[in-house]
UniProtKB/TrEMBL annotation:
The keyword Lyase does not apply. This is Arginine deiminase family protein. Gene3D superfamilies: L-arginine/glycine Amidinotransferase, Chain A. Transmembrane segments: none annotated. The keyword Hydrolase applies.
Length: 265
């Protein structure tokens, strides 16, 4: 079966999206974002992904960052509980998409209080999957209660959660992602604790920290990190580089523009 990926068209109001760790830009161009998003779709399509569109949510400026609103773990879909109030209703569309795909769908109930006496919040951008482990960034949008709730949900499908404290970036996957062989890549000044990763490769540019695995030998990344791309090529990988400048202005990157389903989740 070919891999599948969920995507969601950018809102015309993208410029009003949230920013936390970066200055708000007054140059966000929604038309340019649309063109960049279409190129992103084309790359996934050319790589063999069947693309599934989540119904657009033009009233939600950040809805293009669909990764935050749905997580898939094998054939299980987890409707997330986004940490930013402004983004919580984005899950209405991703839940429908998960049902349409025929995936078993479970919920991380928004705002439910757990043993840590804090609300359950979890953004998909905080979940980095390597093998059977889901590394979950806690300290930004995702709470410890959210990570624990996810751990209970995925235990049934043979996965485990490991909490990763973060403070330097919006999401865990804003600071680190993983190459096909599981090597974690990150730009050191933005990585909270590089020593916690058994296999860590430092990249020379912030945008070099974000890769989407297209297959076992190919990664998709931003074209703003050419020296990092060279490092990956030296390791035998093929690199597809794209301009994602408009999304970066809103603290997004290549990973958050899609939800990749098994086997490249
Ligand atoms: N997974 C991600 O990296 N998501 C990016 C979300 C950016 C959006 N402006 C936000 O602050 O929620």
């Amino acid at each position: 079966m070919s891999p599948r990926a969920l995507v969601r068209a950018p809102s015309p109001q993208l410029a009003q999206g949230l920013v936390t760790h970066v200055e708000r830009s007054d140059t966000v161009d929604a038309d340019r974002a649309r063109t960049q998003w279409e190129a992103y779709r084309s790359v996934l399509g050319a790589a063999g992904f069947e693309l599934i569109e989540v119904d657009p949510a033009p009233e939600h400026p950040d809805s293009v960052f669909v990764e935050d609103a749905l997580l898939t773990v094998g054939d299980l879909a987890v409707v997330t509980a986004p940490g930013a109030r402004e983004r919580r209703d984005e899950v209405n569309g991703t839940r429908v998409a998960a049902h349409r795909l025929g995936l078993e769908t479970v919920e991380l109930t928004d705002g439910r209080r757990e043993e840590h006496d804090e609300p359950v919040h979890l953004d998909g951008g905080d979940v980095l999957t390597i093998g059977d482990t889901l590394f979950v960034g806690v300290g930004g949008r995702t709470t410890r209660a959210g990570a624990d709730a996810l751990g209970r949900l995925v235990a049934d499908v043979g996965r485990r959660v490991e909490v990763v404290p973060i403070s330097r970036t919006l999401h865990l996957k804003s600071q680190v992602t993983a190459l096909p062989d599981g090597t974690v890549v990150g730009y050191a000044p933005l990585v909270d604790d590089a020593s916690r990763w058994p296999s860590f490769l430092e990249v020379p540019e912030p945008e070099g920290a974000h890769v989407v695995v297209l297959d076992e030998r190919t990664v998709l990344m931003s074209d703003a990190a050419p020296r990092s791309a060279d490092l990956f090529r030296e390791r035998g990988l093929s690199v597809v580089a794209l301009d994602v400048s408009e999304f970066v202005k809103l603290e997004g990157c290549v990973t958050c523009l899609s939800v990749r389903l098994h086997p490249y989740d």
